[in-house]
Protein: Uronate isomerase
Organism: Arthrobacter terrae
Amino acid sequence: MSQSIAADPNRLLPADPGTRSIARNLLSLVEELPILSPHGHVDAAMIEQDTPFPDPATLLVTPDHYVTRLIHSSGIPLDRLGAAGSGTPGAHGTTPRDTWREFIKAWPLFEGTASGYWFRQEFEHVFHVDISRLDQQPGEATADAIYDELNARLSDPDFRPRRLFRDFNIEVLATTDDPLDDLAAHAALAADPTFSSRVLPTFRPDAYLKFHTPDWAARVELLISAAGDGQSGYAGYIRALENRRQYFVEHGAVSADHGSKTALTLKLSAAQAQELFDKARLGKATAADADVFEAHMMYEMARMSVADGLVMTMHPGVFRNHHTPTFEAFGADMGHDIPVPVSYTEALRPMLEDFGTAHGFHFIPFTIDETVFSREIAPLAGFYPSVFIGAPWWFLDAPDAMLRFRSAVTETAGFSRSSGFIDDTRAFCSIPARHNTSRRIEASFLARLVVEHRVSQERARKIIVDVVDGAPRRAFKL
Amino acid sequence: MSQSIAADPNRLLPADPGTRSIARNLLSLVEELPILSPHGHVDAAMIEQDTPFPDPATLLVTPDHYVTRLIHSSGIPLDRLGAAGSGTPGAHGTTPRDTWREFIKAWPLFEGTASGYWFRQEFEHVFHVDISRLDQQPGEATADAIYDELNARLSDPDFRPRRLFRDFNIEVLATTDDPLDDLAAHAALAADPTFSSRVLPTFRPDAYLKFHTPDWAARVELLISAAGDGQSGYAGYIRALENRRQYFVEHGAVSADHGSKTALTLKLSAAQAQELFDKARLGKATAADADVFEAHMMYEMARMSVADGLVMTMHPGVFRNHHTPTFEAFGADMGHDIPVPVSYTEALRPMLEDFGTAHGFHFIPFTIDETVFSREIAPLAGFYPSVFIGAPWWFLDAPDAMLRFRSAVTETAGFSRSSGFIDDTRAFCSIPARHNTSRRIEASFLARLVVEHRVSQERARKIIVDVVDGAPRRAFKL
Amino acid sequence: MSQSIAADPNRLLPADPGTRSIARNLLSLVEELPILSPHGHVDAAMIEQDTPFPDPATLLVTPDHYVTRLIHSSGIPLDRLGAAGSGTPGAHGTTPRDTWREFIKAWPLFEGTASGYWFRQEFEHVFHVDISRLDQQPGEATADAIYDELNARLSDPDFRPRRLFRDFNIEVLATTDDPLDDLAAHAALAADPTFSSRVLPTFRPDAYLKFHTPDWAARVELLISAAGDGQSGYAGYIRALENRRQYFVEHGAVSADHGSKTALTLKLSAAQAQELFDKARLGKATAADADVFEAHMMYEMARMSVADGLVMTMHPGVFRNHHTPTFEAFGADMGHDIPVPVSYTEALRPMLEDFGTAHGFHFIPFTIDETVFSREIAPLAGFYPSVFIGAPWWFLDAPDAMLRFRSAVTETAGFSRSSGFIDDTRAFCSIPARHNTSRRIEASFLARLVVEHRVSQERARKIIVDVVDGAPRRAFKL
């Protein structure tokens, strides 16, 4: 048996022995349940084509901006980690092994972080590589040894996405897709009799709703001509969005996802919306125009969700690309998206006034501003049948933050209003670690309620199964 | 002895055995102390007339919007729960037994919530009905059986408000009353030699201070003619408020309560205030006018409190009646009052500049925005002799939230600046459960400080008595 | 051995026996390490001249507005605590012994507070006076007895600043100084071969950057004539600030500290800045002008820090002198500085755009608005090499708040991005208690991560040494 802390069966469970023992019992009911992943960023084509994994650095370090950002904060330039304007690792003369060495040198930075925990789990349970030696000697020789071990593992013909998909016991995996994506990989997987899980597309129209997206006008032009049913202008734009959502529904999509700037929703008249839209196409829209139009489109997206049944997810409140020089050198998603304060109560009202009790409408707000958990989200979800409480997301997708989340929402909204866990990851190999973490935290939280005689043990056993398995099926209509 | 978790003597106490044992010891000092309830919504006439309780659904479900909201969130329309435009349960053809069945069907929704915990306590300790069977078989047969048992209990002639009042060991119970209420029930109780407790009115003038209250102008007309000493206009309005406060003082009131929109206070000149007041009476006031006037009236209420000694309580930061269709169908208090961010530091300054150190002035801010506990309320109460820290209120009146509250305020302001617990309830039968919950949490928090050698056991024993019994007497001048 | 809870070796450590034992082990690695105090308010001249301490009240009560504020909140006027317009204790006829009696009478107010905890530690470990008797009999006789014991101790010729400095094992102590201070005491200490520790000045230019400071124009006049190299106006002002910073650098300063109103930074053109500056010198600047200019000067201070290497610390978000009557009677720093909401993400952007990755630039934001820990500060420090996470400060410099802080930031930013502990105190004798508290909390937090198998014991042992000793050296360039 491994000596790694990542192998300990009590990992993440509460210190108190009595509570821990109850948590172990609760965990045993859900630890082996299939994975439901209704929101994430894995590439469907990789699964479909069963693409071999690249080297360890290109797989685990370079594309994970949650990892590169922290190494960057220690003073290592991003191009030493494989980032490049061109997107090609090594463009600046850095080899994957160089990047890996930087990563292992930076290993201590990840102690106590969510990423560090996932890595330990992944190495232990997916790659079967013992990294406990890093606790003693994190030097270059160790880095190289681990790199070589991983490389061997990754080039094993048995170590491929489809095999892991089965090993991970993934029942549903949702991807995130451009509205004009043809969803060919999703269709091929659905038609493949050898592939029995579900890989579902998610409609993500952000780039078409925000005037300031690079090439917004060209994108919209393309959208309208591809799916506007011959209509032009704002009417064609709305029609095209409706049509492409329908296309996604037909390809198995269950949700539409929105990374809006704020939580604001607004109901403009068609004439008002059209005026802003036309202004933007002429390149004359102001920042305020863009905000108003995006808020209006959030209302429109809700209206379409009521009509076509797609679950609407929203995750506002992040200042994207905070450091312009980094954005200009390396593009988006480089680890400098920084949260800002958010508030939902007044912002969502125009939408909830009209659709808050609409039959079948599901709206799931996510947040990285913890202040709204007890103040706004739990009270909203505790009244509106349409509002589900988004699981702790991004920076909050971590053990302590998850416990704070449960403590903040449960006393007001109970367990039934939760979205269930989402992993939101592009790191395929980290999926089991992320879901297992969530299950351990649910067990820990519930075990405390049992010890405090707030929930009976019988009920806790039912609740944990519902929270892990029932909630995502219910909230995301799986 | 009951097998229910609600009967466990360790309920809500910390898991660690050493800490739990100290908590038990501390709890034993306060568990049987009389109940002081300086803020709530029980009907004084019900006590005075010793009105028999209605059926279980009409008593426990329909009027408790904290309960109906959560059932509503699961998709049950409010009229299935007894709500009606007319206020008459059953108006939509739903019988109390139907409502009760919906409630029991929804029972799992309340696991982990404050309401669920109170219900378990109430069933165990007030109604002596064993509901632990709900943990196994929450079906319709169980629902009916519990309904019938409760009904039998409720129609027992010994099971009446006055008898329970004595059984609950309530020493003081404050109600919440309209400024024009004649307080006849309060007077009758005070004059009744067979009733030895105190039932005190609370002056709640919200409807007269907010221009947008339905019938504001008519209410104000009535107020002025009833108590304006013959003066008219703004002067008569102020005079009438002063007079009615005096009437409340003479009937035993100790506090005036304010559900203001924000925490803003403003000192207008009499001429400025009169101008807004006159504009509003003509129906021409804007939303901004209403906000300014309300802020000014908060200042005025403080001024009057300094003069007449009524403790001033304020609980801003709630967006009332968030979902207009629900408001239009069922009226106010239907579970869709949703908190918004609040800030006190600058907002209260005009008032605290003038009255913050005024002799005998007591100001108690409540909040459901947890962010202000450590940031603003504890620092304000740690300087101003007039400011007391309002107990966790509404959505925050729950075990975990109370512990977060104590952790957030104590290190800055100690224990002496707290308002003491308030139950804020209209659910008379839940009063013991609510106070007992608070006492268990105080014991839990203090026990941890003892175990961490931050407070000596001798001092902790004194503190818990002061927090439970001394603080509300001091803050509310009981 | 003392019976005081302050002497217990397990004080502040977690209740769970297994976790406590690991915490004890971790604590043993750092408890005796030298004290690094890179930010505080001790008077360098007192060290240099080895000034005897005054009586207990004048030493421990009167100058500590964190203490007097809480006694004030209980209704005791500030002049009973030694405060006076003139700054002379006793000016209002109150003797130090009177003040001390008020303090001991108020002793129970401090139970559970950070101040109360520090006092117990200080009495036990610095003054060797047993105050556990206060837990039983906090009367006047006890007050007088403790006063006399302390007085005897304080007049012992061995009980002097330099001796304590050595006993406390202080390696580095930073003071806070006016830009025009000649730093003579610092120079004398540096030149003194009998004094082997480092006492460093800190450049604190607030009074020269805020138009509304009393005597701003006169101060600026003096600054320009003293250090403007003959230049006048805005150019002379900037030059003088640069020159005085250089003077501080030459006298050992490692940081410049900024108590800005908000976190806003702005880059004005020299012409724009000059216009505001000239307007202010004519006494015509508005409040908005002052805000803009201060934000611009924060940008300028960052620019200068990049050039001269001084670490830039910032602690915005406090409403100073909230109660004007108290300010007018007693001046600043009387305990009514009250926090307001703060946000960094957008506010710091102009500065971080230009200097966020500048070589050698260190920026340390502090906060007393806890909401920013997980939402903004950890994400910013997890990307920008220049941003370090300021330790919990002021009201948050307390055991529970420190644990909340670690829980909020670590999962996102790990341990490496922390500033290390700062005591920020003018109470010299409390320094060991404050640092020891921090070390115990770090041990408690890490022990939990070890028990939860999130960090290995080997790594935890390295981390705690780095957090206590490495972090402040790294962040403050010690």
In short: DSSP finds 20 helices and eight strands in chain B.
